[in-house]
Design brief:
mainly alpha; 77% helix
Length: 504
């Protein structure tokens, strides 16, 4: 593929604009960025509108824009599990997280591990929460680079080698610079631009592309029947029905446990802001449904069989479906806008993820174990340095490790992060749970979930559970967290009784 000069010029112009915006953000709602909660949580002052853009930019990432249509393009209806999953998260957000915000605000918590440490008084449990969050988030950051790498390749830049990766490296140097300077204010401000570009791109796509392909009826008629609906269960297996349902439910339970999502929540100015966003964020679920339809549009457009995009599909596989669809459907200037929207959609979550990891490391490792007497300025300085290290690690990760490994680790990340649910959820409503029981539940859930993924060769997170002669394929994260809950609740009376006997 040759370089598309017009698309590249528009792409670069928009990228330079958000870079400027990232540095300007340091002066937006000006405060002392040498205090961790100012740098890492925006001073907990974001209102309804800013939080809506921030959480939307945080959760609906470049990889979402690329991977969800790619999944629909490749396997069909199963890819739509992402739509009900994002719908299920909002009742959870409304009911649970305003309470977490209120406790964190009152007690000065910056991370979920701070909350667990304060609630249960156990350093090891807090350390487990912090390490799980950091390890689960690192491959997630790397996958944002995958989305960016695909659109940079689609512009016509060479793939592989130093030259091929140079635009990616430059982008993350810029990201590192404005995140270090402006903290969470930078992605919050850039998220507004990113989301407006995404909305414009998607609404144009769902009008223009169907018009060129003969309407939605023609699009669905061109999709193979087996990709339109889930196949009915056969024999003694629930098949993809149970896999679809458990993926949606398990993903919904896990999403707001990720450090970047938690950071977005804790940066809100009140619990009411979170409640309002639980209602308003449903607009993004609607957009996600439209994004998923791009996979069917790519099938109808026949982009895989187009010789112009043969090299792209050879290099990136189904992930190239959306870029190819836009290249085939729009003039170059609009392709530049769409690709910039996806690339900026990588910068926003990557920035928040690196800040969230930095907050966890600084508060729950550095301050807890190495420098308990460090000043607020030292704390913020360490967080800024760690955010740089995290970004460098993500770039090295994607350049040095095959993409398949990054996807496998992100798959494991979902299984691991959900193991924080018992400690956080139970901690919100009771302090009677024993920290040792929660730690055992966490370890067991982690081990069992990883084992389930390992039995599938780390190629899938769906585990075929057999019970009473029935096979129930389901999300390993959901199965493993049920065991985690059972152990956490079941062992609590035993450990509490031991503590009482030892205290007598």
């Amino acid at each position: 593929m040759s370089l598309d000069v017009t698309a590249t010029a528009v792409f670069v112009a928009l990228f330079l604009f958000v870079t400027w915006l990232g540095f300007v953000a340091a002066r937006w709602r000006k405060a002392d960025l040498n205090i961790l909660h100012e740098w890492g949580l925006g001073g907990r002052r974001f209102g309804t509108v800013v939080t809506w853009f921030l959480l939307g930019g945080d959760l609906y990432t470049a990889y979402t824009f690329i991977a969800v249509p790619a999944l629909v393009f490749g396997v069909g209806a199963m890819g739509f599990f992402a739509v009900p999953y994002t719908i299920l998260i909002y009742p959870i957000l409304y009911l649970v997280f305003p309470r977490l915000w209120a406790i964190a605000h009152a007690r000065g918590h910056v991370t979920a591990a701070d909350f667990v440490r304060d609630r249960f008084g156990n350093r090891l449990l807090a350390l487990a929460v912090a390490l799980t969050g950091i390890i689960a988030t690192m491959p997630y950051i790397a996958l944002q680079l995958v989305g960016m790498e695909v659109v940079i390749g689609a512009l016509g830049f060479p793939a592989g080698g130093i030259v091929g990766h140079l635009p990616l490296i430059i982008a993350f140097i810029v990201l590192a610079a404005f995140t270090y300077t402006s903290g969470l204010r930078a992605p919050a401000l850039i998220a507004v631009v990113k989301d407006l570009l995404i909305f414009a791109t998607i609404f144009a796509a769902v009008i223009v592309i169907p018009a060129k392909l003969g309407g939605y009826g023609a699009i669905f008629a061109s999709v193979p029947q087996e990709k339109l609906i889930l196949p009915s269960p056969t024999g003694d297996s629930l098949g993809l029905y149970s896999a679809y349902a458990t993926l949606a439910l398990g993903s919904a339970l896990a999403l707001f446990l990720y450090p970047h999502a938690m950071t977005g929540i804790l940066s809100a100015s009140s619990g009411d802001v979170i409640r309002r966003n639980a209602a308003l964020l449903a607009a993004y679920s609607f957009i996600l449904g439209l994004i998923a339809l791009l996979g069917y549009m790519a099938i109808a457009a026949g982009v895989r069989d187009n010789p112009l995009y043969e090299a792209g599909f050879a290099q990136y596989g189904p992930n190239f479906a959306v870029p190819a669809l836009f290249l085939a459907s729009f003039p170059s200037w609009f392709v530049g806008v769409a690709f910039a929207a996806i690339a900026i959609g990588a910068l926003v979550p990557a920035a928040i993820m690196s800040i969230a990891c930095a907050n966890l490391f600084t508060r729950n490792l550095y301050k807890e174990y190495w420098r308990p007497d460090c000043s607020e300025a030292d704390e913020a300085k360490m967080a800024k340095i760690v955010s740089l290290v995290v970004k460098i690690g993500a770039v090295v990760f994607i350049l040095a490790i095959p993409q398949a490994y990054a996807i496998q680790l992100q798959l494991l990340g979902g299984i691991w992060i959900i193991q924080l649910l018992p400690a956080i959820l139970l901690g919100l409503y009771t302090q009677s749970c024993n920290a040792k029981a929660l730690l055992i539940g966490w370890a067991a859930g982690l081990a069992i979930g990883t084992y389930m993924a390992a039995t599938q060769g780390f190629a899938s997170s769906v585990y075929p559970l057999s019970a009473f002669g029935l096979t129930i394929p389901g999300y390993a994260a959901l199965y493993s967290v049920v065991i985690n809950f059972a152990l956490s609740v079941g062992l609590t009376p035993l450990f509490n009784r031991r503590s009482q006997v030892a205290g007598q």
